[in-house]
Amino acid sequence: FATGGINYSWSPVTELSCSICPNPLATPSESITYCVTALSELGCTDSACVRIEVTDECETFFIPNAFAPERGGHEMNDCLRPYGEECFISMRLRVFDRWGELVFESAGFEDCWDGNYQGKKVNSGVFVYYFDGMLINGDPFYRKGNVTVIR
């Protein structure tokens, strides 16, 4: 927003709600620098610029750090899966036990780990996950962490 002038001129006008208002709404789809020039009642001018950074990495996804299969409660707590599929073009989730054995692998958001391995319930404990994929902006993505199974 700009103050102190009687006339304002913003540039570039790309994705601004108003180019001559003191407080236009900006909705850029990519990072951009906007500059405003203000004219005072005495005929003086001043200008300032502001940079708006737009990032494509989606921050709305997460992987729970614990789940309790078959313990009742909310159904979202019955199995492990990443949330925020709208952030990814593709993904892969792998879960390993404390000995490094792969106990679950999925390449789709519709799959989730129910806490079983080879048809048997795993014991309560901490497991390691590796989550990688391709973000909607085309950038590769990789995270790892721990998840606790509570029985």
What are the main properties of this structure?
five-stranded mixed beta sheet, mainly beta, three-stranded antiparallel beta sheet
Describe the fold and architecture.
The chain is mainly beta and 151 residues long. The chain is built from no helices and ten strands. The strands form three sheets. The chain has a five-stranded mixed β-sheet, with no helix packed on it. Strands 1-2-3 form a three-stranded antiparallel β-sheet, with no helix packed on it. Strands 7-8 form a two-stranded antiparallel ribbon. Strand 7 (116-117) and strand 8 form a beta hairpin. The radius of gyration is 25 Å and the shape is rod-shaped. The N and C termini lie far apart (54 Å).
Blueprint (SSEs and pairs):
Layout: E1 7-11, E2 32-39, E3 45-52, E4 66-67, E5 88-96, E6 102-106, E7 116-117, E8 120-121, E9 125-135, E10 140-149
Parallel strand pairs: 4-10
Antiparallel strand pairs: 1-2, 2-3, 5-6, 5-9, 7-8, 9-10
